[in-house]
Amino acid sequence: MPLHLSDFSPEIMIGMALRKLQDKVALITGAASGIGKATATKFINNGAKVIIADINQQLGEETAKELGSNATFVTCDVTQESDISNAVEFAISKYKQLDIMYNNAGVACKSPLSIVDLDMALFDKIMDINVRGAVAGIKHAARVMIPRGSGSILCTASVTGVMGGLAQHTYSISKSAVIGIVKSLASELCRHGIRVNCISPFAIPTPFALGEMSQIYPHVDSQRHVDIIHNASVLKGVYCEPDDVANAALFLASNDAKYVSGHNLVVDGGFTSFKNLEFPAPDQVQ
């Protein structure tokens, strides 16, 4: 029996009106944990159906189960274009549409800090995941969005791609490339009503970041790693959290950002906006 608006209470109607992604379908790579999971949760709470795409099958299935009936898991290794294509086809087969593609999957890089010691094989591996994976995600999302004349495509970049010296070179280069990819592809896809944007977060103590920190500081415990990340914040009293990135993704994916494309939304508390000059006090200068 079909439902009618009169079947819902005013409270339910208001709640539905506030859900910014009502009846949208989103595919998020790297969504089994961290930023991807936080974003999937945020999208579902705003009315979307979300496909959790991740290389970690066990964790991905657990996440989908935790998030409820509006979450579905598909195994996806973003270095395999066929996996990305299959995930997109899964969305079309199950829901008959794909409104949002969030290319979030990425890995850190434990390579030497100096360019003269750069392992080119490792460089190729990181670029394969962080850069090629994003391009393939945009390619296959665009393939199904172009005929519909609409869609929102997101990528996770990083402040390390905005400013030099914040990470070792391979990771920084890969994230800088993601920002460039977004600007380049937005110029084409805007003609089809498709918006392409990215988010550059500050460091967040997710399992992803903490794994990197444990390599740099192996002699201290995980809480100390969290403290080191938090102490780098320049905005007093607050820290960057997965939910902050999820909120940015919700904005960019929703109609609130209907005229935003080719944009890199930096979520860093102002870190990359300025550089403090610490001059000595007058009485210290001879």
Overview of the structural elements:
There is one protein chain. The chain is an alpha/beta fold and 286 residues long. It is 44% helix and 13% strand. The chain has a single domain (8-204, 240-270), classed as Rossmann fold. A seven-stranded parallel sheet has the order 3-2-1-4-5-6-7, with helices on both faces. The chain has nine helices and seven strands. Helix 5 (120-145) links the parallel strand 4 and strand 5.
Give a brief rundown of this model.
The protein has helices spanning 10-17, 34-45, 57-67, 81-95, 120-145, 169-189, 207-216, 222-231, 242-253; strands spanning 25-29, 49-54, 71-75, 100-103, 151-156, 194-201, 264-267. The protein has 286 residues and is α/β, with parallel strands linked by helices.
Q: Which terms summarize this structure?
A:
single chain, 44% helix, Rossmann fold, alpha/beta, globular, 286 residues
The whole-angstrom Rg is 20 Å
**Silhouette:** globular
Give the total of domains. Answer: 1
Helical fraction: 40-55%
Number of strands: 7
| Structure class | alpha/beta
Question: What is the CATH C-level name?
Answer: Alpha Beta
What is the N-to-C succession of helices and strands?
HEHEHEHEHEHEHHHE
Largest sheet: 7 strands, parallel
Superfamily at the CATH H level?
NAD(P)-binding Rossmann-like Domain
CATH architecture annotation = 3-Layer(aba) Sandwich
Strand content: 5-15%
Terminus-to-terminus distance: 87 Å
- What would the CATH topology be? Rossmann fold
Question: Mean pLDDT, rounded to whole units?
Answer: 90
In the predicted model, the low-confidence regions spanning at least 5 consecutive residues are none
Strand order of the largest sheet: 3-2-1-4-5-6-7
Count of alpha and pi helical runs? 9
